[in-house]
What does this fold into?
Amino acid sequence: MRDPVRDGYAKSFARPGGNITGLTLASEDFLAKRLQTLSEVVPGATRLVLLWNPRPGADGPDIYRAAAGKLSLTLQVFETRNAAELDRVFPALARSGTQAVILAQDPLFSAERKRVAELALRYRLPTLSRETGFAEAGGLMNFGPSLFDNFRRAASYIDRI
It folds into this structure.
């Protein structure tokens, strides 16, 4: 489940109501907060790019676009399917006037976090990831829940059920 509120399974995150238990990493409100944080860290940034891997099962860019629209930000989506494409995407972003980059949650960007951080620094593109290790790998910042904590919390839900 991507966004239980948007998908109609819960009334709100604060008071979900009903009979549902679980964890999510992608909600429109959460993505809007990530975009807002990035725009605050890069004052005046209105042209952001989402790097997105269009693999089956990936969160679609529509949830990011909706969040950007609420903040009056322009969000362009660049599809990035493999590590080799990263070397072509970052120079193109720098030439296009991109002011900041946000990474979609994806195993590709997690595995290549050090390379993404190096490219972002080389091309002077402030980049935000929700992946926990991005800042440790040299990226500007990560903003999101800890996957390890979510796994631990999921186990406690399973135990209670």
